Amino acid sequence: MAIETLPESSLPITTPLRPRFGFLASTPIMTAATICLSLIILMAIFAPLLAPHDPVQLAPSLRLKPASAEFPLGTDAYGRDLLSRIIYGGRISLLIGLGAAVFSISVGLLIGLVSGFFKWVDAVMMRIMDGLMAIPSILLAIAVVSLSGASIWTVLVAITIPEVPRVARLVRSVVLTAREEPYVEAAISLGSSLPKIMWRHLMPNTIAPLIVQGTYVCASAVLTEAILSFLGAGISPETPTWGNIMAEGRAYFQIKPSLIFWPGLLLSIAILSVNLIGDAARDALDPRMKQRGAGK
Amino acid sequence: MTDIVLDINNLVVALGKQPGASRIIDDVSLRVAERETLCLVGESGSGKSVTSLTVMGLLQKGSLIPTGGSVKLVGEELLTASDRRLRQLRATRMAMIFQEPMTALNPVVPVGRQIDEVLRVHTDLDARARRRKILAMMEHVRLPDVERIFASYPHRLSGGQRQRIMIAMALVLEPKLLIADEPTTALDVTTQKQILTLIRDLQRDHGTAVLFITHDMGVVAEIADRVAVMRHGRLVESGPLDGILRNPLMEYTRNLLASVPSLVPRAPRQETNEPVVLEANELCKIYRERSFFGKAREVPAAKNVTLTLRKGRTLGIVGESGSGKSTVARCIVRLIDPTSGGVRLVGREISELSRRLLQPHRKKIQIIFQDPYRSLNPRVTIGESIAEGPINYGMPRKEALSKARELLELVHLPVDAISRYPHQFSGGQRQRIAIARALALDPEVLVADEAVSALDVSVQAQVLDLLDEIQKRLGIGLLFITHDLRVAAQICDDVVVMQHGRVVEQGPAAEVLTHPKEAYTRALLDAAPGRGWDFANFRPVAEAAE
Prior knowledge:
- The complex is a heterodimer of chains A (296) and B (546).
- Chain A is mostly helical and 296 residues long.
- Helix content of chain A is 69%, strand content 0%.
- Chain A has one domain: MetI-like (MetI-like fold, Orthogonal Bundle).
- Chain A contains eleven helices and no strands.
- In chain A, helix 3 (82-117) crosses helix 9, helix 7 (182-189) packs across helix 8 (194-231) and helix 10 (258-285) packs across helix 11.
- With 546 residues, chain B is α/β, with parallel strands linked by helices.
- Chain B folds into two domains: 4-102 and 177-258, P-loop containing nucleotide triphosphate hydrolases (Rossmann fold), CATH 3.40.50; 277-509, 3-Layer(aba) Sandwich (Rossmann fold), CATH 3.40.50.
- In chain B, the strands form five sheets. A six-stranded mixed beta sheet of chain B has the order 6-7-8-3-9-10, sandwiched between helices. A six-stranded mixed beta sheet of chain B has the order 16-17-18-13-19-20, sandwiched between helices.
- In chain B, a hairpin with a 2-residue loop joins strand 14 and strand 15 (348-349).
- Chains A and B meet through helix 7 and helix 8 of A and helix 11, strand 16, helix 14, helix 16 and helix 17 of B.
């Protein structure tokens, strides 16, 4: 008789939950994206050490200086060092990106879990989410900022709100399929409490898609912040953000295009890197994509 | 000597081209002659499906590669044939039918058109001649009302009708070889019987050679002329049906046959006067389909089901798919709420209790599910899974984990399994884990919903033994839901037969399964494949009676 034997105990005890980070260096492009993003993040963290000048110190005598040894990228219309402003600007932009990702995922996860599990909550919640999604996110953000005044927190909230429905719907769809699994029914018959079932048996299923969604939210939040600043609805102009620098540089584009070029370049690289990493994370975490790769 | 249609010689299929690559099929030789049915038998992972896909040239390109041997169809080598030639040969010389006819048919094209496609590609008949041929073929596979079915979409047809369409499609060009890969596994026994008879008759009329793949010894006994047993990609033994069933030469074949549960019910156990642990009274579950216009439609999934289970006894609920047996189980465990009727668990009515009031009673009744791959959370260790129940009822974590260790021993798994994850275990082992998890709460009643249906026979026999042993040791009542009368005959003391949500017949297993009173029970028993064989004793049932 086929007596069952355990698989060899040398097998590594792995959990499918633990994401593998090999994808970050899977192709040359991915390696480049990972390195670029890491450099930008390091630059933002160590801004006080890296920046040669004070980013908010006005110096009217030094307006619109060209690149020189003292000002590697020149100065802006108020005589502030452009390089320093860009380095400091990364702090706000990345903080907004990361903050929006974390907040929208936390709130969206909660709403998604609850409405995926309770039918009556679902009916109400999803209609609210539909309503939110019907308003263009920039308009919604401008409305929130102009109602409550511009600060980094209001901008963050204004950017997070339109992202919540997307996350909530994603989580809900995962929960709707996962709750039919026999292991969830087994947990019910074992007498597990609802929060425990949600946290332990349903939530882990959502992690992989949420990591991916998080990178998208992050990229689009950085962009939205730049747009808000550019439109003048964002954080107050003296604080350097990539969007602010570009908004101010707009007036002097014909005299000094580098005012828009450099922050724009950094913004593009950051967003591109995050998006590439998000795509690769989806391929690495979604088993179906993996199979497709193996079938080639 | 009749003509050899399919001749497989020393076939090797490897996982990749490297010389050291593991062999999925290792040195397999088979022959199927005209008018002959060769049954390829084996448990999951034995390589029987890979063998058939190799013949059809349908192996996944680049991962599974035939690296040695030959496959000849009426003298023509297939392994070296071009894709173009293979495409011609499929349908004209060889054809295949699959386990799941719903996924093998295109859901958005009427079935008639799908058969027509085969003819359009491979013949130059005009539209009218094709249609005539198809209708004739559909009548031939005994489909009713062929004109209507010709224009129907697959979802309009029953499982048996779909499989008939597949057979019609496979045989419309009169191929020399028909490969049937578990064609009746997804069907109910009564439908299975009809399909098996149909394949037999068509074979007689057309002289087709049939390579029939199955894991079910009962089906083998019904349809095979010769049998080939496979295991781990190798041929264990092959020979004529009677020889294999009566005098299997190899140990593995003997064990395989010995694991097939007998249809003859086991000797009845002593009637007991133990207390009743579970009672269902006129249990009903009605699904209401609300439609936008018109009035709501009511679909009764279970109607007036009454049953009683005593401590230490096993009550079986048998029936075909859609008979409502699972609905009853889920109502009893309160995974769904019954529409009306009562469930009495150890003297306490639980059908009306709210979620909160039900909590203390949940631990007295536990359930094991069919699919061992989905009933354990893949992200939680075995120990945590088993300990979850006791922790919910206030046992300290440490104590619960040591209890989990004891339970793993009880279900014959090594104690170090506790810190592993479900994907490191086979299906049978996972089912043991699920049993351990259910037992962790010391339930009075254990509900097994098709708990052994997804397992190979040898593993199935082990799990059934385990359940029996546990029942003897702990004296729990077992509610055993199954579609398999063989399994029911071996484990149940009493049996409830269900059809269309109603109880048709109930009584002691020995009584119901040998002298059924109702026509439906009799039909079910008649349809059970291989009912004439007592596999475990290597002889026909008729001889045993003498």
